[in-house]
Amino acid sequence: MRVSDFWRLMDDEFGESYSRTLARDLVVDRLGDRTAAEALDDGVDPKAVWVAVCSTQDVPRERWLGRDIAPRR
Fold first, then answer.
1. pLDDT by residue (tens digit) across 11-45?
2. Domain positions in the chain
3. Which of 3, 6, 32, 45 is most deeply buried (CB count within 10 A of its CB)?
4. CA dihedral 21, 25, 28, 33 (to 10 degrees)
5. If you ran DSSP here, which 8-state letter would residue 62 be given?
6. Does residue 41 contact residue 24 with C-beta atoms inside 8 Å?
7. 21, 39, 67 from 30: Cα distances, Å
8. Is the distance from CB of 50 to CB of 1 less than 8 angstroms?
């Protein structure tokens, strides 16, 4: 997963404004007591960061893959 995919998933799940606040302020124990933003800056795989945020925020597993996006034609 690319960092841009991480942000798309965050925006889709939490909204554009709140996703930035959440990534900056929520300390996640599964990320070594770092925020999502700090973990990304430290080079942690964006997918691992996304899963940690989802788990911490009790996002239902069926939404961990994000919304369906139609392929480009």
1. 999 999 999 999 999 999 999 999 999 999 999 99
2. 3-63
3. 6
4. 150
5. G
6. no
7. 18, 10, 24
8. yes
